[in-house]
Design brief:
Layout: E1 7-15, E2 18-26, E3 39-47, E4 53-60, E5 72-78, E6 85-92, E7 110-114, E8 117-125, E9 134-141, E10 149-153, E11 164-170, E12 176-182, E13 185-190, E14 203-204, E15 213-220, E16 223-229, E17 233-234, E18 237-238, E19 242-247, E20 255-261, E21 272-276, E22 279-286, E23 297-302
Antiparallel strand pairs: 1-2, 3-4, 4-5, 5-6, 7-8, 8-9, 9-10, 11-12, 12-13, 13-14, 15-16, 16-19, 17-18, 19-20, 21-22, 22-23
The protein binds beta-L-arabinofuranose.
Beta-L-arabinofuranose is lined by residues 41-42, 58, 67, 107-108, 164-165, 213-214, 268, 270.
Length: 318
């Protein structure tokens, strides 16, 4: 069990012959997984205007049937990276008017904020032939973790086969970009100001190596990062890793940079990268509570960059 106190580390350094003291605040994290009262996966992290870090995961159902029965979303938030609040269920497949009649399949979501409205994006099939009928639903609210109402889905996304895991990245100039993908294909487009329609045809993201799913885009020091899960397997079992690529544009082309999260013991891997209070974090899931590849639990660890902007492999802590 890790110490849960926030510590102040003093760093001494010498600059141009002068001796100086700089205080660097480092947050000590709590134990992983950080949500233990229910199974959670696919965490998307965002810091909103109230200064809290919100995590939008999907929810594994026990006993599982693959990922078929996942029918609801909860939201979690923290202001110290140790104590997490469960805001409760924000959406259920029974509330999706255009969704498949048997529900379930509420897979990896994301959330974005623009002009006082939170937009919650979730992949969900519209028909019985679930893997051919994916849509990306949009629910909106004035609040980050309650009162979401399904508004519809993003139109004109084309071939729906295996296309899941929406990610919406809002750039510094306010322009929002929509990413999603699956089955080897990752595509993106600018979103219109209404955050519910694409403003241009989808474009394939070039330069990714062995893309599987779980696209996530963040920006640091002017560099765009597209991270995603690959198809890696070990002993004939899924053991996906999280990879990343960089670009000077949110639409690529991308330069493949490598793996930043090794397999976590689950059948899938899925994560996000977020800055909170001056430090960077990798959110991801593992299966350490259940010991079962599709009963997953969300985790967080520190993420460190090298001086050239490349990402160090994340140390997965318990
Ligand atoms: O949780 C269901 C699916 O498993 C997600 O959409 C994928 O990214 C994988 O983690």
């Amino acid at each position: 069990m890790k110490n849960v106190l926030t510590t102040l580390a003093a760093l001494s350094f010498t600059l141009m012959g002068c001796s100086s003291q700089k205080q660097i605040e480092t947050t000590t994290l709590g134990p992983n997984p950080f949500i233990t009262h229910m199974y959670t996966a696919d965490p998307s992290g965002h810091v909103w205007e109230d200064g809290r870090l919100y995590v939008y995961p999907s929810h594994d159902i026990d006993p599982p049937r693959g990922c078929d029965l996942m029918d609801r979303y909860h939201v979690f938030s923290t202001d110290d990276m140790v104590h997490w609040k469960d805001h409760g269920e924000i959406l259920n497949s029974s509330q999706v008017p255009w969704g498949r009649k048997d529900g379930g399949f509420m897979w990896a979501p994301d959330c974005a904020y623009k002009n006082g409205i939170y937009y919650f994006y979730f992949p969900h099939p519209s028909g019985d032939d679930w893997n051919k009928t994916w849509k990306v639903g949009v629910a909106t609210s004035k609040y980050p973790a309650k009162d979401f109402k399904v508004q519809g889905y993003i139109e004109d996304l084309g071939d729906a086969f295996a296309m899941i895991d929406p990610c919406v990245f809002v750039d510094d100039d306010g322009q929002a970009y929509f990413y999603y993908g699956g089955g080897g294909r990752c595509v993106a487009a600018k979103l219109k100001d209404n955050m519910m329609e694409i403003a241009e045809p989808l474009k394939t993201m070039e330069g990714l190596k062995d893309f599987h799913e779980a696209a996530w885009v963040h920006k640091r020091n002017g560099i765009y990062y597209l991270s995603y899960a690959d198809n890696h397997s070990e002993n004939n079992k899924g053991a996906n890793r999280l990879n990343y690529a960089t670009s000077d544009s949110p639409m690529g082309p991308w330069k493949y940079q490598g793996v930043y999260l090794e397999p976590t013991g689950c059948d899938t891997s899925h994560g996000s990268i977020v800055e909170y209070k001056g430090e960077w974090y990798a959110l991801y899931h593992n299966c350490s509570i259940s010991g079962r590849g599709n009963l997953r639990s969300i985790c967080v660890d520190k993420l460190y960059y090298n001086p050239d902007g490349t990402i160090q492999v994340v140390k997965q802590t318990k």
